[in-house]
Design goal:
Elements lengths: L6 H13 L3 H9 L3 H4 L2 H14 L2 H14 L4 H13 L3 H15 L4 H14 L2 H14 L3 H5 L6 H11 L17
Helix pairs in contact: 1-2, 1-4, 2-4, 4-5, 5-6, 6-7, 6-8, 7-8, 8-9
Length: 181
Amino acid sequence: MDGGIPAQRRRDYARGFLALGLTDEASRELAHLTLVDLEDTDSVDVLVDTGMESRNWPAVVNAAQELTQRRPTEDKGWIAWGYALRELGRIAEARDVLLRAEALHGSTCAVLHYNLACYYSLLGVLDEARRRFARATKMHPPFLEGAKEDPDLEALLRADSAGNADGADGSNGPGGSGKAG
């Protein structure tokens, strides 16, 4: 604790700054936390958020990995960890992280399947990308619109446009009809 301000208040300040898009200020608040304060799971949670907002991918990998160990039943750490690995160009590792999370979150987390669709698309495994995309959009239909602009799904979009632009095969790829077959 620094300057008499409790650690929880520092974390709250950091979250407030993040909500305002002020990542430098959030980082400054967290810099006041002691090593003991940083061991608190809420501190790790805020470190994940701060790293994501500031696009500090190595920091997100470290904090999110720790968060998944402390709160494996929450999807946030898993999604952030995979996303940070993807941003670092470590696509196969990102996929592997989410595959580990699938047993815990596969039935409830559409983002997990959407991100897996992206990672499989980037890896050129288009059948699995298509399957994951279908599952994600079944769980969360608004993903259909966003996918059209997602560069991570470009290979899948191209393949579906070239092979069957209207999605009549039920593939539910980004270029498809959006209806699971």
